[in-house]
């Protein structure tokens, strides 16, 4: 029997029932909840971050919520360290840690080892030959930039030239990592450069070294993935946005804009919250139309984020969890919340067997939906394969400005080319080309007609001159 201590994790999309399930399990097994939602670590702003209410918590302690001020950063390494300490504390009091949230990347790096690049002190590292060769080829401006990496990094919306120069520095030192990030994603570009400085090697080489370190479970882990069918979830999420607006969402957004000031990075911290960017036009120009547009934009963004969460879980988390010992993953069908009691019973029964060390049911046997979602086995990618899979390539069809190409992950290229947006742009491009061809043919026809008229006039003039000459009339 494993000596690892037990934890329960509840993950998945927003609106699928994570909070409800985690509280039910906590009440049944004397558990405490640890927040794994990147937006809910921030104080206040309970509506836009969709925190559980006191009533929904039902007296169950919730940790790692409201621990950062808006504007501060919470990096994955910091959260993992805090979460591990919290888990140790809960275990020391003979209680069950239950980690809950939709930030799957955080959960993945907490539950499994050998997934994060560790920090080193730059002064203590030796630069390897490959990196030194690249450093020698830098011009003076790039060398100065590398010696004084800006932290925080420049924002593309405020300083596009500085942001692009930062990316070009990474491209000069580590092309593989540069192809992984959009040049506007200055935080990830900076982090790659910091890894290079800390390790004295290309960041891509540091990550490739992880291929030799097989992932392992940090704890005995029972994972629940509450899953709601997309059509039902979409309707549920739309209603949630309407409820958030009625509960005072716009007041929170106004407060957040006052904190952010005029220059804000929408990819950083709390400012990534869905709703913050979507209502900017309404706050600048309040009207019935801009309000309606803001609501619809927030609904679209929420539905899109739920799709992203599902893809991440299926393509990355589930394969990793399946490859690790001491980890069991179960999908619970939460499409019909009016029948919650059977869902609760299922979760509690599995948790009971897990904690007692009894045999556990086959994950695909819980429901037809579970069997369907687990039917396709997806190969887990090694860290070096992730670099290749996340390489970004430009899409000429979707690019509107050559200076700012539309980039797509190489691994998602086929899916992108089949998307409605890409196909619509191909059709629009074909229409423009057909229209241009019609215009070209029309102009060519007019040119030929004009040429024929000119030739006819010249011929008539010449004929007149010849006739005049024959009868003695001066030309």
Automatic annotation (TrEMBL):
GO terms for biological process: tRNA modification. It is an enzyme of class 2 (transferase). InterPro entries: Dimethylallyltransferase, IPT, P-loop_NTPase. Residues 419-449 form a coiled coil. Its EC number is 2.5.1.75. This is tRNA dimethylallyltransferase. NCBIfam families: miaA. PANTHER family: TRNA DIMETHYLALLYLTRANSFERASE. It catalyses: adenosine(37) in tRNA + dimethylallyl diphosphate = N(6)-dimethylallyladenosine(37) in tRNA + diphosphate. It holds the Pfam family IPPT. GO terms for molecular function: ATP binding; tRNA dimethylallyltransferase activity. Keywords: ATP-binding, Coiled coil, Nucleotide-binding, Transferase, tRNA processing. GO terms for cellular component: mitochondrion. Belongs to the IPP transferase family.
């Amino acid at each position: 029997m494993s000596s690892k201590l037990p934890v329960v994790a509840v993950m998945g999309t927003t609106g699928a029932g994570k909070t409800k399930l985690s509280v039910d399990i906590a009440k049944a097994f004397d558990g405490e909840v640890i927040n794994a939602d990147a937006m809910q670590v921030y104080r206040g702003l309970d509506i836009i971050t969709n925190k559980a209410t006191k009533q929904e918590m039902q007296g169950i302690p919730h940790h790692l919520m409201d621990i950062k001020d808006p504007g501060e950063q919470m990096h994955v390494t910091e959260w993992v360290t805090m979460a591990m300490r919290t888990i140790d504390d809960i275990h020391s009091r003979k209680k069950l840690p239950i980690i809950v949230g939709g930030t799957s990347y955080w959960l993945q790096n907490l539950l499994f080892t050998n997934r994060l690049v560790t920090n080193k002190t730059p002064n203590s590292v030796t630069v390897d030959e490959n990196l030194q060769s690249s450093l020698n080829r830098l011009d003076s401006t790039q060398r100065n930039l590398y010696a004084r990496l800006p932290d925080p990094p420049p924002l593309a919306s405020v300083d596009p030239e500085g942001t692009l120069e930062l990316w070009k520095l990474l491209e000069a030192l580590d092309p593989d990592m540069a192809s992984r990030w959009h040049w506007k994603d200055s935080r990830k570009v900076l982090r790659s450069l910091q890894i290079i400085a800390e390790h004295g090697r290309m960041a891509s080489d540091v990550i490739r070294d992880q291929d030799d370190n097989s992932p392992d479970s940090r704890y005995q882990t029972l994972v629940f993935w509450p899953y709601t069918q997309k059509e039902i979830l979409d309707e549920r999420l739309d209603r949630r946005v309407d409820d958030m607006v009625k509960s005072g969402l716009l007041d929170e957004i106004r407060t957040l804009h006052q904190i952010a000031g005029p220059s804000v990075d929408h990819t950083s911290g709390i400012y990534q919250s869905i709703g913050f960017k979507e209502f900017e036009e309404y706050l600048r120009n309040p009207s019935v139309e801009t309000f309606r547009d803001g609501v619809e934009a927030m609904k679209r963004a929420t539905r899109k984020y739920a799709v992203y969460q599902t893809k991440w879980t299926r393509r990355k988390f589930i394969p990793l969890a399946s490859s690790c010992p001491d980890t069991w993953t179960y999908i619970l069908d939460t499409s019909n919340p009016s029948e919650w009691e059977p869902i609760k019973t299922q979760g509690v029964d599995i948790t009971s067997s897990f904690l007692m060390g009894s045999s556990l049911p086959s994950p695909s046997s819980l429901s037809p939906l579970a069997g369907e979602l687990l039917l396709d086995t997806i190969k887990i990618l090694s860290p070096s394969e992730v670099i290749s899979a996340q390489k970004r390539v430009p899409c000429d069809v979707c690019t509107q400005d050559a200076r700012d190409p539309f980039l797509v992950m190489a691994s998602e290229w086929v899916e992108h080319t089949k998307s409605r947006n890409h196909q619509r742009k191909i059709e629009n491009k074909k229409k423009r080309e057909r229209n241009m061809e019609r215009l070209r043919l029309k102009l060519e026809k007019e040119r030929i007609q004009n040429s024929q008229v000119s030739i006819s006039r010249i011929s008539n003039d010449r004929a007149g001159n010849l006739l005049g000459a024959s009868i003695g009339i001066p030309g």
